[in-house]
Hints:
Blueprint: H1 2-27, H2 29-34, H3 47-68, H4 74-99, H5 104-128
Helix pairs in contact: 1-3, 1-5, 4-5
Amino acid sequence: MWKRILLASLAVFIVWSVLDFLIHGVILKSAYVSTAALWRPMAEMKLGVMYLTVFLSALIFSIIYGWLVGEKSLGVGLKFGLLYGLGIGVGMGYGTYSVMPIPYHMALTWFLGAGVEGILGGLLLGMIVRK
Length: 131
């Protein structure tokens, strides 16, 4: 089971990293430019910490599914990923929007992006982590 969990973690990490680039580096690029005072300059960004955080999140996501979800299937993985993504997205998008002066479309994109990442991660879990 551990091999499948680690393989799933790596697959989820790759997919989430690609989606993060699309969401933050392409879709929201102009929003980040317009709110530049809120963020570190690119030269000061901690990219290693960011990628480690994404990997650890993917690992924990996979462990929760592997250890705590009894029935493992594509459908169950999809449901798990959807709920996880929505849960993370609410906090990321709207929790941040409630305390920081970010544009609404940024909060909405973070929320929806986390949902999409959760769904795709759950599909990967459903395909890889099986009994």
